[in-house]
Structure formats: C-alpha cells, structure tokens
Specification:
Layout lengths: L5 E6 L3 H12 L4 E4 L10 E5 H9 L9 E3 L1 E6 L5 E5 H4 L5 E5 H11 L10 E6 L6 E18 L5 E7 L2 E8 L2 E8 L1 H9 L2 H12 L5 E18 L3 E2 L2 E3 L5 E2 L7 H16 L8 H28 L5 H16 L1 H13 L6
Parallel strand pairs: 1-2, 1-8, 5-10, 8-15
Antiparallel strand pairs: 3-7, 4-7, 5-6, 9-12, 9-13, 10-11, 11-12, 13-16, 14-15
C-alpha cells in the first residue's frame, strides 16, 4: 500500500540518499526515504574529503564514525622519475581526507534516517539517489582490485597514489593498514584476487615500491568493474538525479562519493524555503549550479585514469615532468588539493 504523501521522496538509502534526506529535512521539508538497496561488497574503502566531513558534521552524522585521517598524499609513478606531495597544512585544512568503510558509513547514515523510511508514496519532488538511467557509459580497460594490506611499519597518515602502466594504485591509511584500490587489466585483477598471498604481495611490492613499508599479509580481496557513467540530464519533471544516479566515476583521486555528497548538500540549499520543491525553475537552477563542479570533477578523474597509462619513454617523461612541476610550484599544488577537497569553491 502506498504510504502517506511527502513533500520530497528520496529513492535510495545509500550514503548520498541519506545525506540528501537529512539535509532536506533540516531545510524544513517533509521527507520520505524509499530503501530498495541490496547488500554491497564486504569491504569497500572510501576516502571522504575534508569538505565531506564538514557536510556530515552539519548533518549530525560525523561523531562516532570510525575514520582514519589523511594528513598527506604522496603521488609518484612506477618505473619513472617525478614525485609530489600534497600536505594538509599547505592546503589549509586539518586533514586532506578521511578513510572509512563504505558499509560502516552506510550504517551510520541509515541510523540517522530510520524515522524517515517509508513505502512507495506520492511526492511533489522525487530525488533519485541510486541506480542510473539514460547514461552515457564508458567501460575502462581496467577493473579495481580492492584489498587490505598489513605492513611493517603500520600505515600512518600518509596516502600513496602510484601511477603504474596498467592504471593507478591507491594506498589509503586505514586503522593501521593500507586500504588498496588497484586498477589493473581485468584478467590480471581477477587472477591476483585469487592468487596465493605470497604471489599477491610480490606483485604488490613491484607496483607500489617500498615507501609504504614491507607488506606482511593481505585480506578482504575483491574485484569491481570500472566505468564512467554520466547522466545526460540531471532533472526531469518534478524529479532530480544525484550521486550514482547522476554520475559514476573512476576511483582515482576518490572523488565519486564526495561529489555525490556535495550534490546532496547543494540540493537542500537550493530548495530551502521553496513553497514547491518540485518546481521546474528551482530544479533547473540547481542543475546549473552543479554544472561546473560535476563537469570539472568528471574531466579530472577521467584524465588521471587515462593520462597516466602506458610505459613508453615519452609518456613516462611527460608524467614525470608534470609531477615534478607540481612539486616545485606551491600555488598550483595548493589549488589542486583544495579543488579536490572543496569543489569549485576552491576557485580564486
């Protein structure tokens, strides 16, 4: 049976849907949340930006969340010169980001909206926060191998982004371990996900180098396909699309969920005080307001995913020169870091 009518119905009780529901509720709307989620993978590391922390704090969902701060990010390439370090102090923030488990974050946010859960109902505005439709899709030539690696010494506050010929390898500090997101050719990703531990660790050291310590063991291995999906339009009559319902990104630089949380927060600000939250002019204004952030983030992540592939001398030299230049120029380095944290508000 349909539930009572709500002003706004949020379809999806993942992190972005829950954040949207909380923000819209705080903005004074009667909100219902329709949860049709199915259980996800066992372990999925998520890097939340400092801006995402601020959003979650304002929604009352940060306190008590288990998250490891990232105080610095070292970016390098395997088999070539060039290295740069992004530092929280240089960017003017206490931490560049925080690493948590997607499932832990989901449970935390779901507990905040339990009183908003509803069955199918009518609404003046429908917020689609899961699934994706009418999307332009590009399948990357890699899959993501996700794992937890124990090392000596234990992981501290530094994250490592290592560009290899097959794709980026991210090592994120997570409760003393490294949460690994490794982009590989699909057949190799699946092979390493099932290989004996010593074979996995040997391949891992070859790709990651020794800066992250000596790997001791690995757990929680899983493989996820990598795609870029971007919805052609973010609005429809009395409906708006955000988070994964609007875009799915490559995990390089960890921007997907952070972009979705900015979507959710900005939607609530755009609709605050509106007599009719489903008015076409309001939703179009919101879509226009999000255009710069979305387009820039999609382009940057896609460029990083594609532009650092290959092992040729010319490509390696270009990558090395770019990393060296970024390391030598504090202003562009600070701007890049703040752009990844705050979105377009980092623009001068």
């Amino acid at each position: 049976m349909p539930g009572p009518a709500a002003e706004i119905l949020v379809r999806g009780a993942g992190p972005v849907g829950c954040a949207a529901a909380l923000a819209l509720s705080d903005a004074g709307f009667q909100v219902g949340v329709l949860d049709s989620a199915v259980p996800g993978p066992g372990f999925r590391p998520i890097a939340l930006s400092y801006a995402s922390r601020l959003i979650l704090e304002r929604l009352g969902a940060w306190e008590g969340l288990e998250a490891t701060p990232i105080t610095g990010i070292e970016v390098s390439q395997a088999g070539g010169f060039g290295r740069t370090t992004l530092d929280a102090a240089d960017a003017g923030v206490p931490a560049l980001g925080y690493v948590t488990d997607y499932g832990v974050l989901s449970q935390k946010l779901r507990s905040q909206v339990h009183n908003l859960l509803t069955s199918e109902t009518t609404a003046r505005c429908v917020v689609h926060a899961e699934g994706i439709a009418e999307a332009e899709e590009k399948r990357y030539a890699q899959d993501a191998l996700v794992a937890l690696v124990h090392a000596e010494p234990p992981a501290q506050g530094t994250a490592f982004e290592r560009f290899t010929p097959e794709g980026p390898l991210a090592l994120l500090p997570f409760a003393g371990r490294h949460a690994v997101v490794w982009s590989l050719r699909p057949e190799r990703a699946h092979r390493l996900s099932l290989s004996p531990e010593k074979d996995f660790l040997s391949a891992f050291v070859t790709a990651a180098g020794r800066r992250a310590g000596r790997p001791l063991k690995v757990e929680a291995r899983a493989v996820q396909p990598l795609v870029l999906r971007v919805r052609r339009t973010r609005t429809a009559p009395r409906a708006v699309y955000l988070g994964n319902a609007a875009q799915t990104l490559h995990p390089v630089a960890g921007q997907g969920l952070n972009l979705g949380l900015r979507d959710a927060w900005e939607l609530a600000q755009a609709l605050r005080g509106a007599a009719d939250p489903g008015a076409a002019a309001l939703l179009e204004a919101y879509a226009a307001r999000r255009r710069l952030d979305v387009a820039a983030t999609v382009r940057v992540t896609d460029l990083l995913a594609r532009g650092f592939l290959g092992s040729g001398r010319v490509a390696s030299a270009v990558r090395g020169a770019a990393l060296t230049a970024l390391d030598l120029l504090p202003a562009p380095r600070r701007f890049f870091a703040r752009r990844m944290i705050f979105g377009p508000s980092a623009l001068p």
